[in-house]
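call fold(seq) -> tokens
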Amino acid sequence: MWEWRPFEKLLDVDTIIAEIDDHQCELFDEEKTYVTSAVPARVREFAAGRSLARNLMSHRDVHPKSIPAGPGGQPIWPAGITGSISHTASHIGVAVASQDLYQGIGLDIEVMGNVGQLDLSMVLT
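ret:
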């Protein structure tokens, strides 16, 4: 079995990949509105993403009460923070950074073998 561990700081971006079921949390009302009609698996993914995002931001002394979702489902980060949340069926990945350093960041995680030939110039920008 794979052992997932937090990555070391890289370019002042905090990242973590962990098992979804290990990082559940109670959602705030503003967050619940986005997953009201979602299937249970989606609610678990959403809650795990918010849990890990709050944890990573707390290391930066940022303690949001809510991380709502925008119209496309993207996290609405608190002032001064940018980040990304990605998931597979069993794992969640989160990256956060200072908006002073990065306008935006992206993170995508995939199951080994599920990704075909990639155009690296498109995903590594």
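Residues 13-123 form a domain with the Ribosomal Protein L22; Chain A fold (CATH 3.90.470).
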